[in-house]
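Query protein
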Amino acid sequence: MKASGAEILIQALIQEGVDTIFGYPGGAVLPIYDVLYDSKIRHILTRHEQGAAHAADGYARATGKPGVCMATSGPGATNLVTGIATAYMDSVPVVAVTGQVATSLLGRDSFQEADITGVTIPITKHNYLIKDVKDIPRIVKEAFYIATTGRPGPVLIDMPKDVMTMQSEPRYLASIDLPGYKPTYKGHVKQIREAAAAINEASRPVIYAGGGVLGSCASDELRTLAEKASIPVVTTLMGLGAFPSNHPLFLGLLGMHGTAYANLAVTECDLLIALGARFSDRTTGRIEDFAPKAKIIHVDIDPAEIGKNVKVDIPVVGDVRHVLTEIIPLVNPATGREWNDIVDGLKRRMPLSYEKDGSLKPQYVVEQISEATGGEAIIATEVGQNQMWAAQYCKFTRPRSFISSGGLGTMGYGFPAAIGAQAGCPDRLVFDIAGDGSIQMNIQELATAVTYNLPVKIAILNNGYLGMVRQWQEVFYDRRYSHTSIGGIPDFVKLAEAYGAVGMRITDPADVRPAIEEAIRTPNVVVMDFRVAPEENVLPMVPPNAPISKMIGGEA
C-alpha cells in the first residue's frame, strides 16, 4: 500500500520507538506536521528551534533513548545548529529532522533555503539529504543506528518538501548492515590483561570516569571495580552521577574547578584508569604536568580519542561496560591501602568551602537544593558559575541525573534541556540551576513548560553579572568588568507569572530552604529568583595553562 513520504517518515520514527518530538513547524515541513497531527507521537512545540534541539538533548541524557527534534528549512534548520553542536561535543544521541525546499529549487538561493547538510558536516556524526522517497525507511533506520551505537552523537535528516508528498510503497527494514561502520565493543584480550595487571601492581591508583561510563550504562561495573580494588574515583563534568557522590571513594570533579583533593590525588597517583573520558583541557590543565607520575590506562569506544591529548600506556578500544566486565575478574581485591589513607587525609584537610558571612551565597542555595532533594533530582544547569557550583555542591545517587553542556559550554542550554528531561522522566523532580544571564537566553521556553505541564523548578542565582566572565576579569584583568554587569534584568517573579508559572524572590538565607521545599510541593513550573552575593567566586580555580595542582583557593 502506497504512502506519502511524510507518512513513511512518521511511521519509520514510530518503528524506532520515538514517542516525543520537540519541534517548530514551518512551510517546508507542513506535510510532515499534517501527518503528525493524527499520529501517536507527542509533539512538544518549543518557542525557538534552539530550545527544541536542547530539549531533545536533555531527553536523551535523562532517558538514555535518542532525542528527536524537528524544524523547517533555512532559519529553522540553522537555529538547530547550536543544539546539534552541543550534542556532538558531549556525545549525545539526537536525530534532527529538517525540512528543505523542493529538489527542483535546491542550489537556487530559494526562499528559506540553507545547505544544512553542508553546515552540519563538522558537528554531526552523519547527515542525510533525502532525494528519493524510497530511501526514507532505510535512512531513518540508519540514522538511529548511527546516533546510538559506538560513540553516540547527533545525526541530521534533511528532507525536501516534494519528497514528503511523493508516493511510494514503503519497505521497512528489520535490521541494517553498514559496511565500514563497525564500532568495537569488546576490548582486546591482551590489552585487558595488561590493564588488569597494571591495576594489581599499582600502589596509588585513581579512576578517572567520564561521560562514556554513563553512555555505556557502566555505573554498576565502575562501582564494582572501585570497591573491589579500593580505588578512589574522580569524574569529569560529563561523568558526574556515574558514581555515587556519597561513596567514601568518591573524590568529585577533576580539573579547573575540581576539588582540591581530586586534583592532588591525580597529580600524585601512579596509575590513572581513564574510562570513557577525553582528557579535555578544562580537566587536564597544563597537559605536560597532568598526572606526571602515572601510567595511564585509557578505555574508550572511540579509537580517535586514545592518545589524542595525552600519552597513553595501555590503550583499550571498546565499550566501557564490556571492558570492565572483562577486567573486574582479573583484579585482585584490595583493602586498607596506605594510598587510601592519604587520599582520605586530603579530603579532610581541603574540603569544598565558602565564607559564611550572613549574605546569601550561591553555594548555600545549591547545597540546600541538593539536601532538599536527597540527591534524587535531575539537575540541569546553564553554563558558567551556576554550572560549576552545581557540579561541586550537588550530590547524585543515580546515573543520568546531571545534565549540562560540557564540551561546547552553551549558555541557554539548561532550561530547555530540563524541559526535555522532564518530558522523558515525568515522575522525577527536575531542577534547572541557572544564572541571570544564561536563563535569559532561552527564557521564552517558560511558555513551553507551562503549556505542556512540565513542572521544572528553576533556581536563578541572580548576581547581576555574567558571573564566570566577571570572575576571570577580576582575577586576570584587574577587576576591569568590561560589559559583564547585566543591565535591564527583568522582574523574574512577574515574568514567571506572566507565563503562568509561579515566581518567588528570595533575599534572606533563612528563606532559602522553605522556598525550595514550597517549590517542590508546587505542581507547576516555579521560578526562584535568589538574589545572591554579586562577587562570589567559584573556588578552587586552576588558572589557564597551569598544572591542576596549582589552585587558587580551595583550602579550608
About this structure: The chain is about 35% helix and 15% strand. The first strand starts at residue 3 and ends at 4.
